[in-house]
Fold these 4 entries.
Entry 1:
Amino acid sequence: MQAVWFPEKPAGNVSRLRSLIYNRHPTGGSFVRPNKANFGVDFLTALKKRYALEDGSDDDGKSCSLIVGSKQVQTVGFENITKKQSQLRALQDISLWKCAVNCAGEQGRIAEACPNIRVVNLSKNLLSSWDEVILIAEQLNNLESLDLSENKLQFPSDSPTPTGTFSNLKILVLNKMGITWAEVLRCAPSWPILEELYLKSNNISISERPVNVLQKMRLLDLSSNPAIDESQLCLIAYLPRLEHLLISDIGLSSIHFPDAGIGCKTSMFPSLQYLVVNDNQISEWSFINELDKLQSLQALSCTRNPLCEEDKAEEIIIAKIGQLKTLNRCQILPEERRGAELDYQKTFGNEWKRAGGHPDPDKNRPNAEFLSAHPRYQLLCCKYGAPEDEELKPQQPFMLKNQLLSLKIKCSNQHEQKVLEKQLPDSMTVQKVKGLLSRLLKVPVSELLLSYESPKMPGREIELENDLQSLQFYSVENGDCLLVRW
């Protein structure tokens, strides 16, 4: 059945017919008046129209002489034709989105007219078979990126593509096409160096593991395919170079890496660095615990999940995934990680003690249930020391006296200056602390540099580099020492 193009705002029942014409049922079809439909144009015609390079009479009327054989021939518009041909040959990145392209056209004309094209957007056109895509692609020897989204293509049942047709293709976009996973794998041998594959909104089910195909793929987008579940993700878990995985809006609620125990790393998704799981049904912290098992994970985006509605959700995610550097597109600064991990320790410290946790390493034996729920807690105790009883006391109602920190203030490069002692609110910003010290020490604010030391971390100095953050943000506590330099 030939694909046809209906008007953007069709009258009467044409809107309903448009949906029927795209039905992939083998006996599906519709009747429509010819004057209501656009049956499409070939690739080169659409390209010339899109970039205002149509063939036709020339308006400038310029003429020149040309010798043909022994006769002199007068030509009109020859210079303009040459200019148009030059413009076509110069094109490298083209978009024929919604241009009613239905075929390649006469064999060889694309290669002759525009051989330097590298990027092609053919989304939302009238292409109806993969064979027609091949006829276009085999004339574009430099093709690196191809978007075929929203074309309803029929794929051959056997190996469909001549060797070399897509030899330079690195990016392929096949969104909203109704393509199946079996069809993807059937075509994949002809994409030997493919790095990015977009399969959004295809109702795909991953039915088998890719074997000897897609081995160089770095990015895979499977978003908005609700048929995909946790078990299907295991089938793509051993793609060796997969760095970016986008699985938003698939209804995902759990994930599990059975080859790795508590505190261990999984062999699955060995190169995965960036994971996007937005708009899913993630509501259990066990999901985040599992992500800490990934060897290479550095960036996570998990917005609009039930879990994210919980109090301090982002801080807990940071504390639970030790190697994470970016969360929801925001960089995790070292100070932010430290604060999140210390708060996590305090929040679950009493639970840790009830489960058998103890500051004495010889007596520290939290039960399996606690370790399963908080697999990084023991590591944090080694990193920062076990939480003290004073830290784990229930927080008192807000009163200014309860929020004051008793701090020593030491001018580290002015040895004659006495050590000062001050009580400062933990909500006080670094900028205001500098203002106070500027008045006390008679030094301009712009020249002051602040850091602090904690008895809990001897030998380590933490810079207070952001003037707009509070002392609480940097986890400054009672008994700490502010270091001032200028």
Note: Residues 282 and 305 are 5 Å apart (CA to CA).
Entry 2:
Amino acid sequence: MPRQRTMSYHRRFSLFLLLQHQKPQFLKFKPLFQLLLAYYHDHYPNHNAVPKSHIHIKPSLSSFITDSKIQSEFAHHDPGVARINNGSFGCCPAPVITALQQWQLKYLRQPDHFYYNELRQGILKTRTIIKDLVNAYDVDEISVLDNTTTAVAIVLQKTAWAFSEGTYNKGDAIIVLQYGYGAVRNSIKAYVSRAGGDVIEVHFKFPVSSNNEIISAFRKALKEGKTNGKNIRLAVIDHVTSMPSFVIPVKELVKTCREEGVDQVFVDGAHGIGCIDVDMKEIGADFYTSNLHKWFFSPPAVAFLYCRKLSKCSDLHHPIVSHDYGNGLAIESAWVGTRDYSPLLVVPSVLEFISRFEKGIHGIMERNHEAVVEMGKMLAKAWGTNLGSPPEMCAAMIMVGLPSCLGISSENDCVKLRTHLRESFGVEVHIYYRTPEDGEVEPITGYARISHQVYNKIDDYLKFRNAINQLVGNGFTCTSLLD
């Protein structure tokens, strides 16, 4: 008899769910449905025995953010500009901007209360969210900073001290990629080279056709460095290179570093979080940094630095020395003088915004990747050019060759053309100059780095396509642009 009552309940509840799914007017009873569903799961744990066809309910599409709502959340963007350069400065939706302003006002209203009772708790909450997002072992491994450039300074400062204090010998080296970010390369000059360290640069060709090209070039550079008797103290590896842009096989390169006895590995993931999967346990680096204002919808400027607990992190210090010097990098970074800490505190609000998308940040990453590949292929076909890497080697940015007849012959030409596209056509896009190799016939020397973020529309890329087609049709070359 009890079994009959249970089955009868299953049948009635299954019908109830089906009615909820099929009849919009039932949505007003959603709280009641949720209570009944909770009761059902608590009292009938063997509900999996019910035929799946009776209980499989797809989520209503209305439960996720719509395209029109996405556009309204970014209505503060200039409507006259096709903004396909999210990779440079990122974006921030309206509700996060509102949260930012609320934090700013909270500080300005009562700074003492804010400092003593809210700032550290808020930053700890942000660190905890980041810890979970990147699958770190412990929240103590996460420090919140203003920018990845600051994180680079922290790690390279530690390396410079090791040279000056005799822990490293003059001539010991660090290894970096040829296409490392410009600010990072300058930081290496400022900290490592000045302290007496050598730099080994990994060279490979662009366009790049496979991960194996990068892995082979990296192993070759390591081998040559060791053959010359150098101790390689640090490897600085990009996760997603900036210009030209493609995804680096960081897991394989970190593994190679471990096999070859490189002391420590630092992954520069400035474009990482929100753009590509970031998993500290899988990557296995000693240090990892990423901006949250590029692809994670945070306002500028906020970033994090991960330091693996098993690594030597006690001598990491913020380059701005303040009252908490010596209390650990995470604590030091939480206060580096009077400034606006609001961007570091809105990460919970960012997470709320992201939760409105199907599959959250992973769904956004999939969406951006698929769209940027589709748009990249469309543009390359329209111009008779090629992509800078296979689709599987890009995330939310991809390199697209520009027509060679534009006459891009220097980095200065790229800057001029980019300005011309902005001012004359309302197109914002990053352009890269590729030095041609000897013997190339009509080489493609200019590549556009296009980005895709949730606010982008196909019209943005069509506007770019049409602008380039118009320039080509008019016989335009970069020589016609004044410096």
Note: Residues 360-480 form a domain with the Aspartate Aminotransferase, domain 1 fold (CATH 3.90.1150.10).
Entry 3:
Amino acid sequence: MERKGFSWGVVLSLALLGFSRSVGWALNKGLSFPLLSSYTGSAFVKGTILAVEGLIGLFIPVLFGYYSDTLKSRHGRRRPFIMVGGLLAGVAALMIYTAYVMNVPLWGFALALGFFYFAMHTYTAQYRALMPDTIESGHRGKASGVITLLEWAGNLFLFGLAGFLIAKAVAETGESEGIKALAQTPYLKIPFIITALFLIGAALFVYFIVREPKAPEIGKDENLWDYLKSIVENRDFLRFYTAQTLWWMSFEFIAIFLYGILAFILYGDATEENIKAVTSLGLYLMALFNVTVLLGALPGGIIYDRLGRRLSIILGGVIFALPQLWGWFITSKAQVTIALGIAGVGWGILMAASYPVIGDLLTKFERDAFTGRYYGFFEATRSLPILLAGTIGGAIVDLVGGNYRVLFPIGAVMVLLAMPMVWGMKNLEVSGGEG
């Protein structure tokens, strides 16, 4: 496969695409839970609806990533998926807003969310696969650091924008509940319109500007079953995918139920009123988390290239887990702010260090032609935790009487369980080409 050592043009183009996708996922994380709270107070129902993202992500990236590897097109293997997916995702973001303001029933709002999840996942694997397609091993940590930096900057942008709009709406309406105030003003549409523009614009930019390297000749291709079977048979792939499932499930416990966690810590009960009352605070804390993720992402990529793959992943995981252990004892806004800030640094290191792993393993086993399908499975192991965290996390909270704080220590244990799996990978460290 044609490949240049390191191209800033390619990396920054992928970073722009990552920024736009993160704006879309941040819109979902920042506004879907409080909007769903207008329909139901059940943590299990809200968690299950949001977990549809995980169900869709469990299959679509795996299938579409597999077929993108062998796509024969003058437009490339990845770019057609990226263009179509970006267009659909932009339209879907506008559909979510339209469904809410038209007061559709819960099932209608859930369908709009489901279509958004489907559209976003139609090009998830292709976006991920472009980096190892174009950047050689030994430079992927640096590329991953830059891409991760822009990805989480997209989250920061959306959370900051939504928090600002809510504060403005509260000041104008006098309504104490942030999301209710936002819904009473024209400002509610702004995050959805901006998200749609970013998703559509970035997808078109990559399609018309970025040129994929010449596709490799695939001799004996594996069928879908053989591809899935090879993952289970290779211990390194299996260990990494399992470890990633665990640390993403820990993250999703916080991401999905943050508003409930804040309402329980600050008010002792996660009622609809209390959840809406902490919406603005939740958005600002998400923004803070993303700021500290940015602080961890770039050095995380450098550590990956220079100081070792295992060490960088384990360092990030431990820094992410320790504040969650403390989370069981948190009782104030200041404490939860400090905990999330520290956790963000660890998460940034962990994300930058884990992204290049699949590409490096494929290089090690001389399977560079199959980045689409293996990054499709990579995304599936990021989506399964959403499905599990939404349903299991919601059920746990309901079983313990609405104590959302219990999700902190459970999440910490999952991260710590993942670390020995990473340490046990035999072919993670590669020789030659280090930055």
Note: The CA atoms of residues 11 and 131 lie 7 Å apart.
Entry 4:
Amino acid sequence: MRGCEFPREDPESCHGVDPRAPHRHGPLRIYGYMNLSSTGQMPEMEEVDTNESNWLAKRIALISFLSLVMLMSVLGNLLVMVAVCKDRQLRKIKTNYFIVSLAFADLLVSVLVMPFGAIELIHQNWIYGETFCLVRTSLDVLLTTASILHLCCISLDRYYAICCQPLVYRNKMTPLRVALMIGGCWIIPTVISFLPIMQGWNSIGINDLIEKRKFSGNSTVCVFMVNKPYALTCSVVAFYLPLVLMVLAYQRIYVTARAHARQINMLQRAGGAGNANSADHQRNHRMRTETKAAKTLCIIMGCFCLCWAPFFITNVVDPFIDYSVPEQLWVACLWLGYINSMLNPILYAFLNKSFRRAFLIILCCGQKRYRRPSILGPGATCTATQINGSTHVLNGCSSASKLLLWFCNTRPVPV
């Protein structure tokens, strides 16, 4: 019997198979990779090569981006922890204990959470089993919540240091209270992560939906879905309540900083000819001070909200719209939150002059030119006066030294 020739009036008469309709009886593979198109024509080799090249380029770009985020997060947070351990002056400041604990939480995020998320994202498959999926999810919730609560404690610490009198700050921020606050930053996330997730409280009422989403074709997915009660409770404790406290604290800090900048300029005008400057110069200096304070606080709050608000908004909305949020949006929001762990060392440490100097000493093997000079410079003295119970520096100090003394609650050097 001769082979089939096309075109024919009855292509089905040739063994009942029509190569021009490859999907009727299953795909007809050509060269091991290509299918005949619906028109019976073979796809162009250039088109296949282009698609493979685009896929490979996207894969390389994704791997590079995720690797960069993890590497910078590990190095930045390690550098913060080493700097505080090696620098005696940094260890004297209570706020830095919160920063070290924050860096440790972010370091664990980049070591214990990000790599497994990156592997699953790249391979589109979870190969570590259901038990480790629960453990990894619990660690994710614990460590990211701990990071957010540390940011809240830092804002409260700065509020007491700047908006309250120095005596009130010393009474409020005792070593015991600092330890209790840091302990709370770890205990509260543990309660809302491992306990409900390992017990399955977050999946009550949606177990069938979770089981359906665990398997996608031939792939297994580490699914983390939450019911409405857990979504609301976790989001309020982990994000919305800390956000409100941070906004209130930084708003008061900014108002106090503006008022203090005005007081410094007023005292400079009343301090005599040696300290008096032109009115224009004083106004410019005050505006620069207020603008710098505003920019710093806007950067802190802006980055925090930009990184975490999309995830927690999606986390609350998704259960109320029948879990219809696209998977790609979930992944983007989650990794945007992870990026906050990379930014925290920059926001809370690299913008601080004392930390920058400590970093340079570490990275440059302790070169002397980066050693800490005297805060007020050689032979500098300051005089002070009392206004409404607050100590204000008057004579013998630069404006930068005055602000530094005030922000650090350092007593002026007596004449």
Note: The CA atoms of residues 52 and 397 lie 66 Å apart.
